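Q: Could you fold this chain for me?
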Amino acid sequence: MIQKPIDDMAERLTSVEQLLTDQLTTRHIKRALKHYSDQDNAELLAGILTIVSAGEADYKNQRGMVAKEGTGKILLVAHIKVAESDNSQDIEDAELAFFKEVKAALRVDVPGLSFALESFEHSRQLEHPYGWFVATIKVGPPRNSLS
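A: Sure. Below is the predicted structure, expressed as structure tokens.
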């Protein structure tokens, strides 16, 4: 089916937020980025994922399409905490399990959007008992869209 693309970046962010909220029901999905030291401890233990715009590029520039259907870049910034008694491998395991859930969520179809996972970096066990990851996704019009 041909879908009308979501062209507005704010609408794209809202769509990604709704998708992740629906799919990651045991996690806390937010739009306001905060340092982990400013987060609620119970939420950190469950895992917090913050959605942040990182800009747009690659607009169509044909006649009548100038500055339309660009590709948005979105950062997914996760914070998570394990018990003080856990070891550093436990934080890595928690980060990887959280990211596995995010990848599965991004495979769900959102009308008007397509996703491409671009990168993933995590704490490398350096900040035990706190963990984090940053994933970069590109969002754009569906592969079959009405412009």
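A (continued): The chain has a mean pLDDT of 89.
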